[in-house]
Design brief:
Blueprint lengths: L3 E4 L2 H9 L13 E4 L4 E7 L9 E8 L16 E3 L10 H6 L1 E6 L1 E8 L2 E9 L5 E11 L5 E11 L10 E3 L7 H5 L18 E5 L29
Parallel strand pairs: 4-10, 5-10
Antiparallel strand pairs: 1-2, 1-7, 3-4, 3-6, 6-9, 7-8, 8-12, 9-10, 10-11
């Protein structure tokens, strides 16, 4: 799964990924080192609420997809959707067909089980460039101006280089596929979900400071010293 991610240089990322000028970022120009579920983050979707005929737009959404038919939009949503089954599950089916989005990032966190606990790792592109997750979005309307627009990150089987840390990873979309993924007039291309489609990634053990969603600063990326597990002598 993907439960935290970072966008430490949002202006550079938006320019490199989407050719968007920095003045479109507004409040999202602030570096984010520990984006967590239930928090709001920038997402690129088709304009006009997902309909055809308008170009992409950058909007703020809450991480944790809440289906439009949910009775309670304040109980938290689904942060991840399995790419293998998202088109079949009631929670994601409509969004999978009509409301797909792109989520900019420059790294994500996974926790590896070690003796006596878990060690967080920051995973980024080997070349240091920003990238995007494939996502789905929905709008829940509880009436009386109580509206929540939310998103989920699509996941797939982890690539070979990441499998020792976690068995799942986000679906990473190449720039050449941005338009097709956003277009509600096209059916999703399942070959985009293959882990070998992802760019080469690198991993680095980081501070346990990232464990708390209250911490959102550069110290979350401090390199941690990992002590190898010792085998039994007997």
């Amino acid at each position: 799964m993907c439960g935290r991610y970072s966008l430490t240089s949002p202006e550079d990322a938006m320019r490199q990924l989407f050719d968007l000028p920095s003045d479109m970022l507004g409040a999202w120009a602030r570096p984010r080192f520990n984006i967590a579920p239930s928090q709001r983050a920038p997402v690129l979707r088709m304009g006009g609420g997902g309909g055809e005929g308008r170009g992409p737009e950058l909007v703020a959404m809450t991480w944790g997809l809440i289906p439009s038919w949910s009775k309670d939009g304040h109980r938290g949503g689904q942060i991840n959707a399995r790419s293998e089954t998202a088109g079949e599950k009631a929670t994601f089916r409509a969004a999978y067909e009509q409301r797909r989005c792109l989520i900019p990032a420059d790294g994500f966190y996974e926790w590896q089980k070690i003796d006596g606990g878990k060690q967080p790792y920051w995973i980024s592109r080997a070349d240091g460039a920003p990238f995007v997750f494939a996502g789905l979005w929905e709008t829940w309307n509880g009436g009386k101006e109580d509206e929540i627009t939310s998103f989920a990150v699509l996941t797939t089987t982890a690539s070979e280089e990441l499998h020792e840390i976690h068995h799942r990873m986000p679906v990473i979309v190449g720039k050449q596929n941005f338009a097709a993924w956003l277009d509600p007039g096209q059916s999703p291309q399942r070959d985009l979900f293959a882990p070998e489609k992802a760019p080469q990634m690198q991993t680095r053990p980081v501070s346990a400071r990232v464990n708390s969603p209250r911490n959102d600063d550069a110290a979350c990326l401090d390199t941690a010293r990992v002590i190898p597990e010792q085998g039994s002598l007997f």
